[in-house]
UniProtKB/TrEMBL annotation:
Gene3D superfamilies for the chain: Multidrug efflux transporter AcrB transmembrane domain (1.20.1640.10)
Lineage: Bacteria, Bacillati, Actinomycetota, Actinomycetes, Streptosporangiales
Pfam family, one: MMPL
Keyword list, A-Z: Cell membrane, Membrane, Transmembrane, Transmembrane helix
InterPro entries found in the cross-reference section: MMPL_dom (IPR004869), Mycobact_MmpL (IPR050545)
Protein name, as recorded: MMPL family transporter
Topology class, membrane: Multi-pass membrane protein
Bilayer-spanning residue ranges: 32-52, 195-213, 220-244, 250-271, 299-318, 324-348, 385-407, 547-568, 575-593, 613-633, 654-676, 682-705
Domain (Membrane transport protein MMPL) ranges: 62-385, 416-722
Principal subcellular localization: membrane
Family, similarity comment: Belongs to the resistance-nodulation-cell division (RND) (TC 2.A.6) family. MmpL subfamily.
């Protein structure tokens, strides 16, 4: 064994495949590589530290949509738009109609309007006392505020000054802040706290699990360090992306979660191959070269697969979702650098500390695997229809809640109950008859418009509409209900404010928008406001979902074909991965939409799922599923190229790859599952959904469906290329 722990010059090995030559080069230049890697780490850490504060707070918007154009016209021609912020004003005694309370309310409204960054401020007292801005018990009133600018400017610069100043209140008034911008301003620090707290738990647990699997402290520590390196490089690369694109602050969360998981996964496969090469009798230089040649190739294909799956998010015209593509691809690059460049140089230097303490005997001939996974694969392949059918039935049953999927809007209930903005929104939801701050806004396309009275009256008759305000007055139930504040409707052309009821917003605001757009207007109009923005964003995402799926399946098909030379194996892999994705979405619907386990996890179900997070998880989970598919197929194909026997190749490949895949999958699932204890529901969804997908993929899919389907396909698995001519080793 001593001979295997020394680095030999290996001068005779100057040829061979490119990756093997790379491995030998890394051995010979290991000190230089490690020194340069340390420099890269320091530089990357500096860039990463500078990237984090530059991440933006992107909104869920659909650029170029009807609602987006409506907002532009409202701002340009009327100087108005959707409120960004709401102040809930509560009378400390009496009601908001008391003269003294009204006087302080008007003064407070004017004080809000005078604050830097505020474009508009209006309240119950300045808009002619509409019922939509007064609680039913008379104790509360609303001040609605418009703060123009991008999300980063509003949430990071204006609100931190404005909210503390106004929520001081007055002698007669207590003030609390709410509204969409304040909700998401509170979400960001809570999400960061969730990830920091989770990482503090994950690192020691990952080390323990790795030690139990590797039985060497250094072999457990090195993959974790590689994960850290992947995270740091990923954030550093995002600093470059920020020069030409906006990246959401939530991308930081994905960088931390995927960086550690992929860094550990990739390094485990290289270390495992290094151990196998050593067991076969190779010296340390040859073992490193063999690990880079075989495991390195697999890791490169795996990284390409994950990156390709995330790259399809670029097909969506939303900065929020594109941010995750940038972050995911950057992390993959970091993981590949750590596993294929840094780790081999480290193995050449300290490889002996990665080997089992008890020496393994050198096999006398071609290695034939035996063990639990070999026996399991053999048993499954004896009755492939039975085992494959049962596994498929179980997965379809677990995925069945997906049939009840309903998309909706994320609101303040993504926050914990103790969050200030959520408490504000709860009072508004329970005490006010309508949602003035979430009004649907209709603006004429032309600067000249005709009579709008009949149009406003017709709109006010729609189910879910509490009131319609316009230059012609306010309308409710088809009748004029008062003058209202007609001054705000003066400008070039005409616009109307359709105020929805609280029930309509809590139910299906998209349906209400469709009903408003279906009413025949007396002139050409654009429909905007928050409900319309939600409808347009959801439609844009859902409409492009088939394109996302097609691109995702297409690019991964090409990657797997390039690795295996088979047209059948990529199709089979895609079908199996769709099953694991179905289980993941079934879990999301069952838990987060329907509210099962809400008490245990501590979140409030709304009966719908925001479409953004599931689509993000679709791409991430599909890429990670293909990650394990690449690892397993590479082992099976290598054995098939050596023997030409599909069944033996599957059993031997499963025995060689399944223990590692299961261990790596368990660690990655743990990484995501730690986020199930988060305070923000988005983070919980990511944690639970990804943990379920990884566990199902690393166990049932790989252990049962892969051998059963490959047994049924037989020689067809390798069509059209068939067996490669690889010499036995």
């Amino acid at each position: 064994m001593a001979a295997n722990t020394q680095v030999r010059p290996a001068r005779e090995e100057t040829g061979g495949p490119p990756l093997r030559r790379l491995g030998l080069l890394l051995v010979r230049r290991r000190r230089i590589v490690l020194a340069l890697s340390a420099v890269v780490l320091v530089v990357a850490a500096a860039l990463a530290a500078g990237a984090v504060p530059r991440l933006s707070l992107a909104r869920f918007e659909a650029p170029g949509s009807e609602s987006d154009r409506a907002q532009i016209e409202l701002d340009r021609r009327f100087g108005t738009g959707s409120p960004d912020l709401v102040f809930l004003v509560t009378a400390r005694s009496g009601t908001v109609d008391d003269p003294a309370v009204e006087a302080e309310g008007r003064e407070l409204t004017a004080r809000v309007a005078a604050q830097e960054g505020v474009a508009e401020s209006a309240s119950y007292w300045t808009r002619g006392r509409p019922a939509t801005l007064r609680s039913e018990d008379g104790k509360h009133a609303l001040i609605v505020v418009r703060v123009p600018g991008d999300a980063g400017h509003v949430r990071a610069r204006v609100l931190p000054r404005l909210v503390p100043e106004i929520t001081k209140g007055t002698g007669l008034l207590q003030v609390r802040a709410g509204g969409g911008e304040e909700v998401f301003r509170e979400t960001v620090p809570l999400a960061r706290q969730d990830f920091v707290r989770a990482e503090l738990v994950i690192f020691p647990l990952a080390f323990v699990l790795l030690w139990l699997y590797q039985r060497r402290a250094m072999a457990a520590l090195v993959p974790i360090l590689a994960g850290v390196l992947a995270m740091v490089i990923g954030l550093a690369l995002l600093r470059g992306v920020l020069l030409f694109a906006d990246v959401s602050t939530f991308a930081l969360n994905l960088t931390l979660a995927m960086g550690l998981g992929l860094g550990i996964d990739y390094c485990l496969f290289v270390i495992q191959r290094f151990r196998e090469e050593t067991r076969r009798g190779a010296d340390r230089a040859g073992a490193v070269a063999g690990a880079v040649e075989h495991a390195g190739r697999t890791v490169l294909f795996s990284g390409l697969t994950v990156a390709a799956s995330l790259a399809v998010l670029f097909a969506l015209p939303f900065d929020f979702l594109r941010s995750f593509a940038y972050a995911g691809i950057a992390v993959v690059i970091g993981g590949l650098f750590a596993a294929v460049i840094v780790l081999p140089a480290a193995l050449a230097s300290i490889g002996g500390t990665m080997l089992p303490k008890r020496p393994l005997p050198k096999p006398a001939g071609p290695e034939r695997a035996t063990g639990f996974w070999h026996a399991l694969a053999t048993r499954v392949m004896r009755r492939p229809l039975l085992f494959g059918g049962l596994a498929t039935a179980v997965l379809l049953l677990l995925a069945s809640p997906l049939l009840g999927l309903r998309f909706g809007a994320a609101d303040d209930r993504i926050l914990p109950l103790e969050a200030s903005s959520r408490q504000t929104q709860e009072v508004i939801r329970e005490s006010f008859p309508a949602e003035e701050s979430d009004a649907i806004q209709i603006v004429s396309k032309d600067r000249a418009a005709g009579d709008i009275s009949q149009y406003a009256a017709t709109l006010s008759c729609l189910p879910g509409v509490a009131q319609v305000d316009s230059a012609a007055g306010s309308f409710a139930d088809g009748r004029r209900a008062g003058d209202g504040d007609t001054r705000r409707f003066q400008g070039q052309g005409a616009w109307l404010s359709v105020v929805p009821s609280g029930e309509a917003l809590a139910g299906d605001p998209v349906r209400l928008v469709a009903a408003v757009r279906a009413v025949e207007p007396p002139f050409e109009v654009l429909v905007g406001g928050y409900p319309a923005e939600l409808a347009d964003y959801r439609a844009s995402v859902v409409d492009r979902l088939p394109l996302v799926l097609a691109l995702m399946l297409g690019v991964t098909f090409l990657v797997l074909f390039g690795m295996t030379g088979s047209l059948i194996l990529p199709v089979k892999a895609s079908l199996m991965n769709l099953l694991s994705l179905g289980v993941m979405f079934g879990a999301l619907v069952w838990v987060f939409q329907d509210g099962n386990l809400s008490g245990l996890l501590g979140f409030t179900p709304t009966g719908t799922l925001d479409p953004s997070i599931p689509i993000l998880m679709l791409c991430v989970a599909y890429g990670l599923s293909m990650d394990y598919e690449v690892f397993l197929l590479s082992r099976i194909k290598e054995e098939y190229d050596r023997t030409g026997d599909t069944e033996q190749a599957v059993a031997t490949g499963l025995q060689g790859g399944a223990p590692l895949i299961t261990s790596a999958g368990g660690i990655l699932a743990l990484t995501f599952a730690a986020y199930a204890t988060a305070q923000v529901t988005f983070v919980q969804m990511l944690g639970v959904g990804m943990a379920v997908a990884v566990l199902v993929d690393a166990t049932v899919i790989r252990a049962v469906l892969v051998p059963s389907l490959m047994r049924l396909a037989g020689p067809l698995n390798w069509w059209p290329r068939g067996r490669a001519t690889t010499p036995a080793r």
